Amino acid sequence: MIKKxxxxxxxxxxxxxxxxxxxxxxxxNRKDLQIxxxxxxxxxxxxxxxQFNVKETIRLAKEHVDKCDIAVIQGSxxxxxxxxxxxxxxxxxxxxxxxANGDSLLTNPRELVEIVTSxxxxxxxxxxxxxxxxxxxxMPILTYMGIDAFLTDSANYYSYLNILQTPTKAYDLNSxxxxxxxxxxxxxxxxxENMEFVIREIHAHMKNRSLRNLVEERSGTTPQNISTxxxxxxxxxxxxxxxxxxx
Length: 247
What we know:
By secondary structure, the protein is an alpha/beta fold. The protein has helices at residues 47-63, 79-92, 102-106, 109-122, 139-145, 153-160, 184-207, 211-218, 223-235, 237-241, and strands at 5-11, 14-19, 22-24, 26-28, 70-73, 96-99, 128-131, 149-151, 163-165, 170-172. Helix 1 (47-63) packs parallel to helix 2 (79-92), helix 2 runs parallel beside helix 4 and helix 6 (153-160) packs antiparallel against helix 7 (184-207). It is 47% helix and 16% strand. The longest helix has 24 residues, at 184-207. The chain is built from 10 helices and 10 strands. The protein has a 5-stranded parallel beta sheet with strand order 4-8-7-6-5. The chain has a 3-stranded antiparallel beta sheet with strand order 1-2-3. It has one domain (5-154, 189-237): TIM Barrel, CATH 3.20.20. The model has no long low-confidence stretch (mean pLDDT 94). The radius of gyration is 18 Å and the shape is globular.
């Protein structure tokens, strides 16, 4: 059930591609994916627990490879375990991967950069990566690092918290009543519409080779966002320049 992923062009490490004929980067609804069962764990756990969860994740993925096309990369905060999990899942036959603990990674910029870049460097070229949970302002830099797709779960999650997600800011509607008396369903729809807008925005910038401009624009929206870009530039310039077009 492996999906065919073709890379059409790059803007930095970010990739414009085709996944079974559909353009990437793209959004996925979790219910539309055949995700292999996995042994999840918290981000900050002892290494022995993370090792056990990786082992169980690989076992479950192998048992369900004929029915599933997406596997989950576990390993908590341990980069070597993440890479081991990726390599073994690729050997089983998967080429689509969800990076577990996305919400925790967004609050740990250094770990976010190191895990994403390490996985990208270690993966096969036809492997694609899905980030499971993100604020909209993070989507450009995640794409720039090489993430190919996002789950729409966050639109639903933030609606339960009464938070409006926009391309540049998350508004708590209890404090900023931009929309009054809005239902949770209506708020989820607005969050999803804004998520779809950001994907269109990313596509337009990538086609114009200006994704980096968008990333720098959005870097000032949160301290975590600007820290992520600074760490990426300082520690992984060779990775960024490998696919950057020179003029």
